[in-house]
Design brief:
- It contains twelve helices and eight strands.
- The protein is α/β, with parallel strands linked by helices and about 300 residues long.
- The protein folds into two domains: about 1-135, Rossmann fold (3-Layer(aba) Sandwich), CATH 3.40.50; about 150-305, Rossmann fold.
- The strands form two sheets. A four-stranded parallel beta sheet has the order 2-1-3-4. The protein has a four-stranded parallel beta sheet with strand order 6-5-7-8, with helices on both faces.
- The longest helix has 21 residues, at about 285-305.
Length: about 300
């Protein structure tokens, strides 16, 4: 049995967990390749215009992997932690796939996490039984906090480089959802551009586990979104422990939750007296303007450091 996993959305958080589960259950796992412009084009054609770019990319991955697997795993992630939810489009992801790609409906294997049961292992077990895997083959334990897929994508751009920090390069904190940070096609290879500017970058997934809750727990009101909570925790880690010189925030154009979270992050960063560059992406984004803004941003931080 071949199980297809789209390399999109929270694959960059849970991809290692999903692959490990299905392989230990005796299935052959097929992961779609890295996002390309053709993936974006296919997903944009299948979905309606109002969908954000990450969802269109997900649809493109589903389409590209449909003929390579017996089942396509659709992560229906409503809630992955107590007291917070994921984006509404995550909640409706199976329906989006059914309507945008009706010909793959019979191959869809939905893994629903939340709203009541947030145990991902139990959700995966239910999906495995649904596709006909015997219960005796299903794993009994699973590591759901492994961020290997995200950090592997980062390593391909030559990061992290903490061993060279004594050289005195600028430290730049990257904020955003994992599928915005680690999908190189989505963000137009922003890490390659930063690599050329000779700076050290830090992402939320590099944050030690003992820092969880340190930022989101200080807010006046509890955040409703899990991805927003994680960004606030990473923000405080970067400000307090790393002493970064500035921030770059990557987000999809017209993302509802990020329109709120992004503004809150910007206010906290300005309160700390640090600069921030906000980059919005959609399917028509071009590299030229982004490179100009990146270079100007880094130059201004260098100039600010010398003057101060």
């Amino acid at each position: 049995m071949k199980i297809g996993i789209p390399r999109a959305l929270l694959y960059y958080w849970y991809g290692f967990t999903w692959r490990t589960f299905w392989e230990e259950a005796g299935a052959e796992v097929v992961v779609s390749g890295p996002t390309e412009r053709s993936t974006v084009a296919i997903g944009s054609k299948a979905g309606v215009d109002e969908l954000c770019l990450p969802i269109k990319i997900f649809l493109g991955h589903v389409r590209q992997i449909a003929d390579q697997a017996d089942w396509i795993m659709i992560p229906h992630l409503i809630k992955v932690e107590t007291g917070a939810y994921l984006c509404p489009k995550f909640m409706g992801l199976p329906d989006l796939v059914y309507h945008a790609l009706p010909d793959v409906r019979d191959k869809v294997c939905v893994v629903t996490v939340g709203p009541r049961n947030i145990d991902m292992l139990q959700s995966l077990k239910g999906a495995a039984l649904m596709v006909g895997i015997p219960e005796r083959q299903i794993p009994k334990t699973l590591d759901v906090n492994n961020r290997l897929p995200a950090l592997y994508e980062l390593a391909k751009s030559g990061y992290p480089r903490q061993s060279d920090l004594q050289r005195g390069r600028l430290r730049i904190g990257i904020l955003g959802h994992p599928y915005c940070i680690y999908d190189r096609c989505f963000n137009l290879n922003v890490f390659d551009k930063l690599n050329g500017l000779d700076v050290d970058i830090f992402t939320p997934e590099m944050m030690p586990g003992n820092m969880l809750g340190i930022g989101s727990g200080r807010l006046h009101k509890e955040l409703f979104w899990s991805l927003g909570r994680f960004q606030f925790d990473a923000l405080e880690w970067m400000i307090g422990k790393l002493k970064v010189d500035g921030f770059i925030h990557l987000s999809p154009f017209a993302c509802g939750p990020e329109a709120i979270i992004g503004d809150m992050l910007e206010r906290r960063i300005k309160q700390a007296g640090l600069p921030i560059l906000k980059l919005l992406f959609e399917e028509h984004s071009g590299e030229a303007g982004m490179v100009t803004r990146l270079e100007a941003f880094i130059d201004l931080i260098h100039y600010r450091s010398r003057v101060c």
